[in-house]
């Protein structure tokens, strides 16, 4: 079985979004279409309430899916379909905006003092851009964890591991979303569907994400002018983008182990027209979306 190599490595960068939320952007607008069908991955991780309480007040989406995964803290949400509630530690919110939805996500003061979570955007193909919106609120207790003989632990949000199916199913881009913890020095091999985009985002520890040990064999994108150290072992707040050839990935944990999100999905190979919270296939479709939002006709189904 052919093992995939790393295509590029990116370091997440600080930015401010919403009404003033401080976060790290792993990838986004400037990397389209490298991560197709994924558009963006944000990491919000802080112990300072002033950096997250302003949240993301009411705003529209069309043409995408937004996925929020909370590791610590609380996020209150509501939308134009009448959904509302709070997601907490270990919970996932998987929202398909489709033809249009207006929602808000408002972090609450964290009981532990730490707010830590992720949001990534997945694109929808042209044929499903205007599908009916839908919403999934998945509680931590409903996300199965698979423990392998090697001690590797895998929380399966979407996809299947050793016969265990994640609770998020029937998604257009056939995604896989896993939270993987690998013990120190352990090698973990994971099969990936042929041609699918595969991404790892590191949460804690360190690891080698392919079998090479030459840091100059890998393109490291987005380095700052003072980034003179170059290593082939990857640490927190690093996103690994794999080549599309090969049927499996191979990860070797460092001496403290490694924890990472693993995300894969079927590329769309379609034009991307993206402005703010709306992603379509053409500038004309964007114009229509924003005109409808101004006129109050944006929401097609409540």
Automatic annotation (TrEMBL):
Residues that coordinate or bind Fe cation: 59, 61, 103, 105
Question: Which cofactors?
Answer: Fe cation
Residue ranges spanning the membrane: these are none
**Among its keywords, does the record have Cell membrane?**
no
Q: Which Pfam families match?
A: Pirin, Pirin_C
**Ranges where the Pirin C-terminal domain occurs:** 177-298
Q: Is Aminoacyl-tRNA synthetase a UniProt keyword of this protein?
A: no
Q: Which GO terms describe its molecular function?
A: metal ion binding
Domain of life (superkingdom) = Bacteria
CDD domains to which the protein is assigned, alphabetical: cupin_pirin_C, cupin_pirin_N
Q: What is this protein called?
A: Pirin family protein
Q: Which organism is it from?
A: Geoanaerobacter pelophilus
């Amino acid at each position: 079985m052919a093992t995939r190599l790393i295509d590029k490595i990116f370091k997440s960068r600080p930015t401010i979004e919403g009404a003033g939320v401080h976060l790290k952007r792993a990838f986004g607008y400037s990397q389209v279409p490298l991560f197709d069908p994924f558009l963006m991955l944000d990491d919000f991780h802080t112990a300072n309430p002033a950096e997250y309480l302003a949240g993301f007040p009411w705003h529209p989406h069309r043409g995408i899916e937004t996925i929020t995964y909370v590791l610590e803290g609380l996020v209150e949400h509501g939308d134009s379909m009448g959904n509302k509630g709070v997601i907490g530690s270990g919970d996932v919110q998987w929202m398909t905006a489709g033809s249009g939805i207006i929602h808000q996500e408002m972090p609450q003061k964290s009981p532990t003092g730490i707010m830590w979570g992720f949001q990534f955007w997945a694109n929808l193909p042209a044929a499903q851009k205007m599908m009916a919106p839908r919403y999934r609120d998945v509680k931590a207790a409903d996300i199965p964890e698979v423990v392998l003989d090697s001690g590797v632990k895998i929380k399966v949000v979407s996809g299947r591991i050793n016969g265990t199916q994640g609770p998020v199913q029937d998604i257009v881009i056939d995604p896989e979303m896993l939270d993987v913890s690998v013990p120190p020095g352990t090698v973990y091999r994971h099969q990936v569907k042929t041609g699918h985009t595969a991404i790892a985002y590191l949460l804690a520890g360190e690891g080698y994400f392919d079998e090479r040990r030459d840091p100059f064999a890998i393109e490291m994108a987005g380095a700052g002018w003072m980034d003179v150290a170059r290593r082939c072992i990857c640490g927190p707040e690093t996103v690994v983008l794999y080549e599309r050839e090969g049927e499996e990935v191979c990860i070797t944990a460092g001496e403290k182990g490694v924890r990472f999100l693993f995300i894969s999905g079927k590329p769309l190979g379609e034009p991307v027209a993206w402005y703010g919270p709306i992603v379509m296939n053409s500038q004309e479709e964007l114009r229509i979306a924003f005109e409808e939002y101004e006129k109050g006709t944006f929401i097609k189904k409540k």
